[in-house]
Amino acid sequence: MPDPRTVLVVNPHSQNGSIGRRWPGLAASVREAFAFEAVLTAAPGDATRLTREALRGGAGRIVAVGGDGTINEVVNGFFDDGGGPLAPGAEFGFLPVGTGSDFRRSFDLPADFSSVARMIHAGPSRRIDLGRALFHDASGRPGARMFANVASFGISGVVARRVNASRKRFGAASFFLATARAMLSYRNRRVRLTFDGDEAGAVEPRINTVAIANARFFGGAMMIAPDARMDDGQFDVITLGNFGFADLITSGRRLYRGTHLEMVRVSSRRAATLAATSADDAIVELELDGESVGRLPARFEIVPSALAVIGARPLPLQRPAPLR
Hints:
With 324 residues, the protein is an alpha+beta fold. It contains seven helices and 17 strands. It has helices at 18-31, 46-56, 68-77, 113-122, 155-165, 173-183, 245-257, and strands spanning 6-10, 37-40, 61-66, 91-96, 107-108, 125-136, 142-147, 150-154, 189-195, 206-207, 209-213, 235-240, 266-271, 273-278, 285-288, 291-310, 313-314. α1 crosses α4, α2 packs parallel to α3 and α5 (155-165) crosses α6. It has a 15-stranded mixed beta sheet that branches. It has a two-stranded antiparallel sheet with strand order 5-17.
């Protein structure tokens, strides 16, 4: 059976523009595995538009070449503005590059382009859940967007905005440095969280960050949700409570190892929907897959088995060993 028409959506600005400079060589290594057409993005939003155009033009497989932001845009291109699938039988693949590359960390993937390309060619595809967020943008207008990895709000929203405005010259460490700087002035916020529509069980914690996790990693390799699965029809909602700068210094490595769930000011629960509002009228910034999109109030909904991912095997669950 011949391969479906495959379109690569390439962000040449990934890795501070190195993907654009390296693209001829990278393209040659991918072409050894399968035939493809390539389209290059030039501005934010292009990857979503180009994906929709390719799917409407009959493409059966779209492969994102870029970081988490590019992956997010391409995933959104599989759906219309109302969240309906444009081509239910189409497959999504990704050749991961970028600063954080958090989405790829939840999959068993080799490090080089050629090997991942061969995995995409070999298949098979596996269906994963996605999240859909309804939120307010920076101007207060309603917005809606899908996410594949993790949505979060609190200091993480501030960090995402600052990192994306920077040159990211320190790679994944850019997220840690931005977090450390933000915590020197950030004030934790009180929010109201309603899980699965249970208003009677709503809580109002003071939070540093709340992560709504479909996959396991965010923020440049932090294993925020070590037990998250992308095919269980639920989010892992991780709440980091009244954390301060000292907590980051003394316990920060627990976030990277995934052993923070045992801490007193951390809570975890599963839910298919989460409604979140600011409980003290403060602005609480929101990010989706590392992209700064707006602020609370917001609603997050799981969309089960929403996307067929080709050539990527989810890592098996393995509880991290406690710190000695």
